[in-house]
Amino acid sequence: MTGSITSNYTSGGSAASGSSTAAAATFGKNFDTFLKLLTTQLQNQDPLSPMDTTQFTQQLVQFSSVEQAIRQNQNLETLIAMQKSTQAGNAVSYIGKEVDLNGSVVGLVDSVGVVTYELPEAASRTTINIYDKDGKLVRRMEGTNNAGRNAVEWNGTSDTGAQVADGDYKVEVVSQNAAAQNITVKTVITGVVSDVRFVNGTTMLTVDGVTLPLTQLGAVRGAPTTSS
């Protein structure tokens, strides 16, 4: 499978870096103005009644503190930008590998979607509810009840038998044990990473047509083997 890399944002630290640059420029102008005023007042003071320099000293200390804070912010922004760049570079290596993404979404691609979920114990009944982007129930299916990993294929048809459009659909999996008590279900998206996207500073992975943040990555395996 051929993967792709898409960037939809300027460097992760550029916006913040621009903010620090603007703050530094403003600070420089204000400090220059302060020095001009101080020089002018010192040149025109009455020699017999010199000015009290305590206030000027305090203001110089304040300017020094502000300058140090701006430099600390610039260093922090540089570190954050480097971290994001490293994370993005590492994410590229996921292309072509099989991964698990934690998320209650199923991607319908070519009228086929697979709902994957994990049960901490065997269930007596599992119901899968699939909703469209408007929150309308599209399909209700019976799921498998095995403890551990379960994968149920959806052929993209609604409860009325109509074929729905490809895209992302929200998934709700409800399971109960033999005592009719609800079981905690963990929904997982399993598939091969087809591309990596960088959106507004966030690294996104696309698996089976579904794009989710890298932070929802649950497991990584090698490229799936194909039978000859």
Would you mind describing this structure in some detail?
The protein has two helices and 13 strands; from the N terminus they run E-H-H-E-E-E-E-E-E-E-E-E-E-E-E. Residues 1-16 have low confidence and may be disordered. Helix 1 (14-43) packs antiparallel against helix 2 (54-92). It is α+β, with helices and mostly antiparallel strands and 228 residues long. It folds into two domains: 8-92; 98-220, Immunoglobulin-like (Sandwich), CATH 2.60.40.4070.
Rounded mean pLDDT score: 78
Decide which structural class fits the backbone: alpha+beta
Q: Report how far the terminal alpha carbons are from each other.
A: 16 Å
Number of helices: 2
Coarse morphology: elongated
Number of strands: 13
**Percent of residues in β-strands:** 35-45%
Number of domains: 2
Unreliable parts: 1-16
Profile the largest sheet. 8 strands, mixed
According to CATH, what is the class of the largest domain? Mainly Beta
Q: Secondary-structure element order, as H and E?
A: EHHEEEEEEEEEEEE
CATH topology of the largest domain: Immunoglobulin-like
Question: Percent helix among the residues?
Answer: 25-40%
In angstroms, what is the radius of gyration?
29 Å
